[in-house]
Design brief:
six-stranded mixed sheet, globular, Aldehyde Dehydrogenase, Chain A, domain 2, 16 helices, Ald_DH_N, Aldehyde dehydrogenase family protein, plasmid, seven-stranded mixed sheet, Ald_DH/histidinol_DH, Aldehyde Dehydrogenase, Chain A, domain 1, 2 domains, 25 strands
Length: 481
């Protein structure tokens, strides 16, 4: 098998890490090494930041918003031209079934299309003030933005973060996760072919404890976007605080779907299951908790169990319901939660099936639905990041709200009811950054602002709102008499 080697992408040039070391990339479907990435260090991050800083005073910094938008639109078209390559690479790198990987390519292209069209539509205001004055506000780029991208959705999260940052005129340094970053590296080639000027995008691969820390601490980075775990997010924010720069954090989730007795179960049940097992449950906004009004609880358990028993788990290339988790390390974490559930006597309502011909070296976990789980159990309170859901009954709105809000997280929530008043009461009472009524988007569309409250983070990406987050407002007061 050919093992492809990737360098860092700095100032539109590919180069090895300054230390000359590489990190092996393994296919989670079979455990085999199929690529190597540069092991970037503090020196490589510094080179990338310098490149981005130079871009701001060079060709990239001189482009008008309209011209920046046209560049992004060309890159979007380039992504779609490479859809087969990116699909296959994402499937091998992350373990996504091919259909899910292809959807991520389309989403990346859509992000770039959206932000390409939005680049010249960010307007300031004029503010009524004293006689003899005209006061206006304008939005300006932060400067150099750092982007720390996780391994679960490399293309989608690159699109929502980088797209908005470039649209506003920032120059970016991206540190993707070492577990899965190959589509981000291929994207650099596509971006260059689309006419992105030198230094506007720089990518340094490596370990979070080395390259990630260096990017978070760098004194010439003006804004950081981080998606990942709560613990790492806390460290990123603490490092950035030393330089007094803003941080957008999208952290973990323990998102609930709340099903009332009057819900349309035919519509709800596919969303209840799919939002938990998509990408093998490795989604920050995964619906890992299902709360069901007691009158229909057993029916929902039965319907979800039937779907679970039909789930097939296998290699990403087989394009089954569920692929492997990203690594054996992640597999061990998920299996640790299931072991605790078994030790504590929790009931398994149903499980999916790992196909017989799945390679033994693959990182496979059988999707599992746990029922009647106590609210304080760790499978309810902690993010599992695997294909595991818990289902619990409730009685009435008050208890539903208490359970839904009863974790440290607040990212997404779904509410299923045909009662219009209840829909709005629940939407207002739930502590979450996004609330879906009679649907569940696991983050929603490109157009919808996304982010959390509590330990799910702060700041918003996606949609038009993200553009404001990647810019600073300047107030200009003119005295003219």
């Amino acid at each position: 098998m050919t093992v492809k080697t990737y360098g860092n992408f700095i100032a539109n040039k590919w180069q090895d890490a300054t230390g000359g070391e590489f990190i092996a990339v393994r296919d989670p479907s079979n455990g085999l090494e199929f690529a190597r990435i540069a092991r970037g260090t503090r020196d490589d991050i510094d080179l990338a930041v310098r490149s981005a800083r130079a871009a701001l005073s060079g060709e990239w910094g001189r482009l008008t918003p309209t011209e920046r938008g046209r560049v992004l639109t060309r890159i979007s078209a380039g992504v779609l031209r490479n859809i087969d390559l990116l699909t296959e690479l994402e499937a091998r790198d992350v373990g996504k079934p091919l259909t899910q990987a292809r959807a991520d390519v389309v989403a990346l292209a859509r992000y770039l299309e959206f932000y390409g069209g939005a680049a010249d539509k960010v307007h300031g205001d004029t503010i009524p003030y004293q006689n003899g004055f005209t006061v206006l506000t304008v939005y300006e780029p932060h400067g150099v933005t750092g982007h720390i991208i996780p391994w679960n959705y490399p293309m989608q999260i690159l699109g929502r973060s980088l797209g908005a940052a470039l649209a506003m005129g920032n120059a970016a340094v991206v540190k993707p996760a070492e577990e899965a970053c190959l589509t981000i590296l291929e994207f650099a080639r596509i971006a260059e072919e689309g006419g992105l000027p030198s230094g506007a995008l720089n990518i340094v691969t490596g370990f979070g404890s080395e390259a990630g820390v260096a990017l978070s601490e760098h004194p010439d980075v003006n804004h950081i976007s981080f998606t990942g775990s709560v613990r790492t997010g806390e460290m990123v924010q603490a490092a950035a605080a030393k330089n007094a720069v803003p941080v957008t954090l999208e952290l973990g989730g323990k998102s609930a779907q709340i099903v009332f007795a009057d819900a349309d179960l035919d519509r709800a049940v596919p969303f209840l299951v799919n939002a938990g097992i998509q990408n093998a449950g490795q989604t920050c906004s995964a619906s890992s908790r299902i709360l069901v009004e007691r009158a229909v609880y057993e029916e929902v358990v039965a319907r979800m169990s039937e779907r679970y028993r039909a789930l097939k788990v296998g290699p990403a290339g087989s394009d089954l319901s569920v692929g492997p988790v990203v690594s054996h390390r992640q597999k061990a974490i998920v299996e640790g939660f299931l072991a605790d559930a078994a030790k504590d006597g929790l009931k398994v309502a149903a499980q999916g099936e790992i196909v017989a011909d799945a390679p033994a070296e693959g990182a496979y976990v059988a999707p599992t639905l746990l029922r009647d789980v106590p609210h304080q159990h760790r499978t309810v309170q902690e993010e599992i990041f695997g294909p595991v859901q818990v289902i619990m009954p409730f009685d009435g709105e008050e208890e539903a709200i208490r359970l839904a809000n009863g974790t440290a997280y607040g990212l997404v929530c779904g509410v299923w009811t045909n009662d219009g008043g209840r829909q709005l009461r629940m939407a207002r009472a739930v502590h979450a950054g996004q609330v879906f009524i009679n649907n569940y988007g696991a983050g929603g569309g490109v157009e919808l602002p996304f982010g959390g409250v509590k330990k799910s983070g702060h700041g918003r990406e996606k949609g038009f709102e993200a553009l404001y987050g990647f810019a600073s407002m300047k107030t200009i007061s003119v005295y003219h008499g």
